[in-house]
């Protein structure tokens, strides 16, 4: 089995994949356009931020599993993968601490002018007067949008700095907020109005696109900080640019819309040269600790897939099949039994949506559970049970 790696993974992970007996095509320089021509003979593709588009999926006949070695999966066309029966999985939480650490770094940098301090020092300029105008963080309020893995790690670190925390998240309950010792807000707007610092930690998807709108940004206090280490698409970047250009807000960003696809080289951004903006190179996840943790997780997903046929962190599984009926067939474990059951269902024009077959100790008998899109008639059930040398029992269970 062949695995293609289209981003940089630690050597240890490459070795572990080889030890699993895989043919490893380690090609970290591959870009979206390279992948778009397809992977002719790879069954598994591992990426970090490299885009896996529909063309890649349509032109990769053997591809069966795509792993995002990281958290955000907006670089993968999941809809196209689902249409071709390709598993998509990610490695959630493994880089959350690293991103939280960077988030605090951006906040401290903006408050204490750390990048400008260093850059002036290196240029031989001493400027204690200008750089003694920091406000300090203690006792201020940070607003957290999205209390997932990263949001929660940011909360702990912010509390360590003596910041008060107010948060909004779609699934944040009062009990959870009490446990985290934070204030729970009813809306993003409410968080923005109360915050000296607003930090966003949402996944990027159709519902969160532009969720940090012009109105949200304009309801931040004068001089407030806006921090984004999630994805550029969650914020109205035009509005953000206006707010930082006119000097009303400060921004700490690890993600922005014209982020280069290449790893090293010249580039231009409208955010360059603004003193109230601190931008890093999408390095939230790029500590050794996080990269090792993510890579270990990716290897473990591959291991589970090739050894047990199971995909951990499987993202594109249909959670709710409409199958109203479940057929449980206990049967003798020999060739053709399930095929005969399926044939009876096919004759009755009944579709089997999900199927699981498990085998008992002694390897004589097995149990097959099949989710059906329609109710089989008595006649179909009788036909299945008639093969007494194959079927022990067939029971129809309505799924509620
Ligand atoms: N800068 C980096 O290097 C870096 C590293 C890791 C993750 N990230 C980004 O940060 C994001 C969050 O990562 P995480 O590990 O905390 O993920 P997570 O899955 O634990 O949290 C995601 C959060 O987004 C919220 N969310 C998702 N869909 C939503 C919707 N439709 N409406 C409202 N809320 C929604 C969830 O409720 C949750 O609070 C990732 O998706 C990724 O884009 C960036
Ligand atoms: O979603 C993520 O995990 C991050 O954005 C990390 O991106 P990277 O793997 O390209 O560093």
TrEMBL record:
This is D-3-phosphoglycerate dehydrogenase. PANTHER family: D-ISOMER SPECIFIC 2-HYDROXYACID DEHYDROGENASE FAMILY PROTEIN (AFU_ORTHOLOGUE AFUA_6G10090). Gene3D superfamilies: 3.30.70.260, NAD(P)-binding Rossmann-like Domain (3.40.50.720). It is an enzyme of class 1 (oxidoreductase). Pathway: Amino-acid biosynthesis; L-serine biosynthesis; L-serine from 3-phospho-D-glycerate: step 1/3. Keywords: Amino-acid biosynthesis, NAD, Oxidoreductase, Serine biosynthesis. GO terms for biological process: L-serine biosynthetic process. Catalyzes the reversible oxidation of 3-phospho-D-glycerate to 3-phosphonooxypyruvate, the first step of the phosphorylated L-serine biosynthesis pathway. Also catalyzes the reversible oxidation of 2-hydroxyglutarate to 2-oxoglutarate. It comes from Rhodohalobacter barkolensis. GO terms for molecular function: (S)-2-hydroxyglutarate dehydrogenase activity; NAD binding; phosphoglycerate dehydrogenase activity. Its EC number is 1.1.1.399, 1.1.1.95. Pfam families: 2-Hacid_dh, 2-Hacid_dh_C. Residues 326-400 form the ACT domain. Belongs to the D-isomer specific 2-hydroxyacid dehydrogenase family. It catalyses: (R)-2-hydroxyglutarate + NAD(+) = 2-oxoglutarate + NADH + H(+); (2R)-3-phosphoglycerate + NAD(+) = 3-phosphooxypyruvate + NADH + H(+). Signal peptide: none annotated.
């Amino acid at each position: 089995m062949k695995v293609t790696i289209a981003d940089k993974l630690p050597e240890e992970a490459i070795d572990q994949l080889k030890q699993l007996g895989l043919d490893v095509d380690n090609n970290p320089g591959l870009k979206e356009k390279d992948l778009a021509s397809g992977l002719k003979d790879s069954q598994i593709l591992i990426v970090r931020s490299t885009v896996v588009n529909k063309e890649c999926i349509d032109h990769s006949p053997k591809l069966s599993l795509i792993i995002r070695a990281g958290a955000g999966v907006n670089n993968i066309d999941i809809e196209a993968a689902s249409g071709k029966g390709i598993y998509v999985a990610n490695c959630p939480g493994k880089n959350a601490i690293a991103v939280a650490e960077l988030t605090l770094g951006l906040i401290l940098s903006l408050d204490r002018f750390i990048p400008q301090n260093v850059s002036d020092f290196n240029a031989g300029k001493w400027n204690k007067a200008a750089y003694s105008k920091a406000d300090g963080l203690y006792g201020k309020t940070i607003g957290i949008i999205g209390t997932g893995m990263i949001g929660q790690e940011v909360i702990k670190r912010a509390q360590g700095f003596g910041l008060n925390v107010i948060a909004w998240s779609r699934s944040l309950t009062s009990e959870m907020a009490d446990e985290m010792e934070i204030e729970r807000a009813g809306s993003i707007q409410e968080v923005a109005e109360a915050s000296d610092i607003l930090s966003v930690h949402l996944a990027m998807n159709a519902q969160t696109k532009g969720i940090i709108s012009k109105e949200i940004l304009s309801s931040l206090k004068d001089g407030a900080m806006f921090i984004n280490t999630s994805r550029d698409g969650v914020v109205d970047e035009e509005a953000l640019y206006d707010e930082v250009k006119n000097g009303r807000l400060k921004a700490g960003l690890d993600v922005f819309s014209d982020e280069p696809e290449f790893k090293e080289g010249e580039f231009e951004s409208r955010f360059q040269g603004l003193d109230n903006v601190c931008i890093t190179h999408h390095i939230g996840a790029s500590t050794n600790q996080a990269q090792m943790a993510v890579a270990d997780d990716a290897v473990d997903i591959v291991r589970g897939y090739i050894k047990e046929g199971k995909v951990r962190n499987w993202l594109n599984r249909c959670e709710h099949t409409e199958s109203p009926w479940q057929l449980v067939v206990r049967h003798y474990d020999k060739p053709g039994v399930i095929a005969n059951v399926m044939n009876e269902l096919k004759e009755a024009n009944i579709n089997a949506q999900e199927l699981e077959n498990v085998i008992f100790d002694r390897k004589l008998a097995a149990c097959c559970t099949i989710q059906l899109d329609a109710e089989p008639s008595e006649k179909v059930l009788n036909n299945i049970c008639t093969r007494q040398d194959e079927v022990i029992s067939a029971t129809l269970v309505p799924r509620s």
